[in-house]
Fold these 2 entries.
Entry 1:
Amino acid sequence: MAQSPDTSKTTKLERYNTYIRKVNTTKILSASSKLLFRLTLLVALILIFFFTFNNQPVSDPTISNHRVLTTSHFLSSAFYGSGASWEKEVRRSSTPRRLNGFSVLVTGAGGFVGTHCSLALKKRGDGVLGLDNFNSYYDPSLKRARQTLLKQHEIFIVEGDLNDGELLSKLFDIVPFTHVLHLAAQAGVRYAMQNPQSYVRSNIAGFVNLLETAKNADPQPSIVWASSSSVYGLNTENPFSESHRTDQPASLYAATKKAGEEIAHTYNHIYGLAITGLRFFTVYGPWGRPDMAYFFFTKDILNGKPINVYQTHDEKEVARDFTYIDDVVKGCLGALDTAEKSTGKGGKKRGPAQLRIYNLGNTSPVSVGKLVSILEKLLSVRAKKHIIKMPRNGDVPYTHANVSLAYRDFGYKPTTDLSTGLRKFVKWYVSYYGIKPRVKKGINDSN
């Protein structure tokens, strides 16, 4: 009698193959789900990025500036404002090394005065954290070079905008700043005629945003900020004193700085913030701003281009109280050292708070013609001068600082004359831009 075939092995093999197929199918479905999720997330991010850059009508004349600000906010919130390594860098940079040292937030740290003040504070052992949006008002590569210089001295700059409230709040949550040195601003008198909104956005809205963050901080920091000699406007009394009238600004830039002084008074009065304003007088020196006359005169003289030297409409020479950067830095540090603590807590004033305003100038006005003569000697090149009438663009014909108040309160005493200061500037300029040896000879001759 024939035996029936053994089917047990075949059945087991079929069951095993079915199991393997199910496992593989599950893996494929799982991998597909993960891939689909990642693709969806990527598309969402692309759409967010797209709408971030394109949420304004094309007809808006301020669209380019708005996009820069929006991009800055997006980047600072998404990248700079998160992560353990980023927070570690913020804390490390802002931690003082000396006993009872300050922890200072320096806004505009990538700028001219901001860079020098940051270096001076760090050198004496204070903690310094910078904030800068690295805008393109002038050559951003110069600002980046300053950033590199600060990095070499272990000073970290957070790249962000004053109008990014979330970023500011995050910085104050991470660091209990004792002081804020507020130097960020839209500078320049003439540029205000081309882009007025940038002055309102930075010098007024940005300042208010910073004060709003500071008033809610615990502890509230003491604030020292940069006003300007431009607030004296059409004032004809000389030398300019803090008691003179400042209600006749000659430019929008001056008007925004005057508005800043009134805003500072308000936040001092209501919220108990200790605030000191510093009116700078034509600051110059190494690592300076390319939009300043001494800087672009140097460039144009070396390139053989003509320069415009202004006269007043009654044919008088235009003069400025040129103030060397090292003297201004000493004034800024003196103001920080004598700043009293703010008196508010939880956004409420607990007692009277310090409110001050000071001139920081050189007390020795020099004509622009004399400035050009000094540069000619240092550069060993004769300038091609065009003497023209001063245009009505907001510039004033004469500035002269009375600094007796700053001397009385924190010993401010400028020591650098224009010839000495320009020699130091030219020495830096020829090194930074790699100028021919004849200029170095001129510098040595002047010594």
Entry 2:
Amino acid sequence: MTTRCLLHVCLVLLFSTEISSRLCTMLHFQQNKVNKESLELLEKVSGNFPSQCINERAAFKPTLDVQLSVSQKENAKLAIQEILQEIFNIFSKNLTPSAWDGTSIVTFQSGLYQQIQRLEACLRAQMEKELTNPESEDHQLTRLRVKKYFQGIDAFLKEKQYSLCAWEIIRVEIPRCFVLIDKLTRRLSN
């Protein structure tokens, strides 16, 4: 009885790893779609950049220093997952301007969340398959660089007391993250 139960567990694990592996092969297609939808939603959330915010734009000095050593595909996947998670965190604080379209924000967050879940499953499957250490120096450095960048965004929002202009500046900045994600995604497909 125990042997039979153990066999069932092994088969489930085998098939779940295979399914996760197949999800990983489709990852770049899914990510391209999520990027496009996210950019459209960010544009739709508020529309044109408010003219009263132009002078404040100079106050934000982004330091997107995420020149990752992405020779490993897992590190590129990790970078993408971490960037999406940080974007999700920024837009999940319930501090976005009330003037923004709430439905678009929720749809934006939902798309990010779904892709984060896919990436986590893919990373788990890859690391199990290849016995990669999730706490490797490369992975820690990737996480640290991404977190540092988003801490700067968070600090800017706090400093500007989550004003409409601060959020608009960040809304215009976030597409740069999707450009980086697109570059990393292309590396995955090669």
